[in-house]
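Fold this sequence, please.
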Amino acid sequence: MSDWQIWIVVAALLLVAEMFAPGFWLASVAVGCGAAAVAALLPIGLLGQVLVFAATTVGSLFGLRPVLVRRFLHARGMEVRTNMEALVGKSGVVTKRIDPVTRVGRVAVEGEDWRGALLEGGSAVEPGTRVIVVQVDGSTLVVEKEV
């Protein structure tokens, strides 16, 4: 098997592996393998192929990968919410009465039980009532009755 064929096979395997590994890291290495395959067709030897591979891989990590991540992993203008902030807007069920005076109760959202509180001026919410998470206050989900 020729050098260029080995580089192409490795690039193809990396592209297949990229489908199972997020972040476009392996795709950047596959680009380097593709460039090394083209270099293998020139009379530059194995050291030249490895140098082309290394330079192209680093170049694609810093040049191509950020473009792909922005375009395919993060929608433009959208904030990526994580942890509890991702619960805002989700619906849940009251598991322990939420008292309007103490603002204390429990809410199940996405299979997890959280401390729940009402917005100011709300009336008591009994267990079994569907609610919407409107904000997060520390480790407490502030909710209102679902309409």
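The helical segments are 3-18, 25-40, 45-73. The first strand starts at residue 91 and ends at 96.
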